Amino acid sequence: MRLSNEGHSISVIDKNERAFRRLPEKFAGQAIVGFGFDRDHLLQAGILHADAVAAVTSGDNSNILSARIAKETFAIKNVVARIYDPRRAVIYQRLGIQTVATVTWTTEQAIRRLIPDSITPEWSDPAGKILLVERNLPDELCGAKIESLNSKSARVVMVTRANIARFSTPALIGQEGDILHILIERDAIDEFDAKLSSKEAE
């Protein structure tokens, strides 16, 4: 409901039509009976125009299959899969798919992965001037030092790699699938995002 309220178009696919009863009365998106890994059902849901996909069924195998199809077949950039077996997280991460284990699953975490450029912070100082935000490392920065992104108004303080967090150090080299955690001044976010975008365009 939050994504819909923020102006995003939402489609929900579920094999059980009764599951749609849990949707809010004011839900304005599509509700499609089917499977999240079925090409026809995904096309019906509008995946060709989608910016993000969340696979959140009760089965790890179905979720990872749906996530891989979204990422590899339809080239969806922002994909997240809910998992019940955290031991599989490393494997999924190597496939470029962000995962959230069921014990730590929250709407906030999912949205940060589906819309990584949102300003929704993980933390903020009382005045709201300094934020801690997440960003995905552009592929073009894989093999480069993470500290190259630092400036006087933004600093990468931590990197999550294969669902394991580590402090950023001067020697840390970026790898595919890295999630950056950046302490940044609110007014510097647009400049930082433009810097990341320029790396992706190179």
How would you describe this structure in keywords?
202 residues; alpha/beta; Rossmann fold; five-stranded antiparallel beta sheet; three-stranded parallel beta sheet; 10 strands; 25% strand
Major β-sheet annotation: 5 strands, antiparallel
Overall mean pLDDT score? Answer: 84
Alpha carbon gyration radius: 18 Å
Helical amount among residues, as a percent range? 25-40%
CATH architecture term of the largest domain: 3-Layer(aba) Sandwich
What is the total number of structural domains? 2
Tell me the number of strands: 10
**CATH fold category name of the largest domain:** Rossmann fold
Poorly predicted regions: none
Q: Look at the structure and name the CATH superfamily of the largest domain.
A: NAD(P)-binding Rossmann-like Domain
Order of helices and strands: HEEHEHEHEHEEEEEH
CATH class of the largest domain, named: Alpha Beta
